[in-house]
Design brief:
The chain has 61 residues and is mostly helical. It contains two helices and no strands. The chain has helices at residues 14-26, 31-56. The radius of gyration is 16 Å and the shape is extended. The N and C termini lie far apart (36 Å). The relative contact order is 0.08.
Length: 61
């Protein structure tokens, strides 16, 4: 089964664009793949914190 991909425009400053390009190159990834990788890691971290908060009864925003 094919993965559905969404295409959209992302505007970045020159500084951010070049930093992402450098980091992607170090990881031997395309910029698109690197951005997706970073976002997935961040989402996993947020979900983990939310789960920890739910288990402890605390509320995090």
């Amino acid at each position: 089964m094919a993965t559905i991909r969404h295409v959209f425009t992302l505007r970045l400053s020159d500084e951010v664009f070049h930093k992402i390009g450098q980091l992607a190159s170090k990881e031997r990834r395309s910029m698109t793949n690197y951005i997706e990788f970073v976002l997935l890691n961040h989402l996993a971290e947020v979900e983990s914190k939310d789960q920890e908060a739910a288990n402890s009864g605390a509320h995090i925003e």
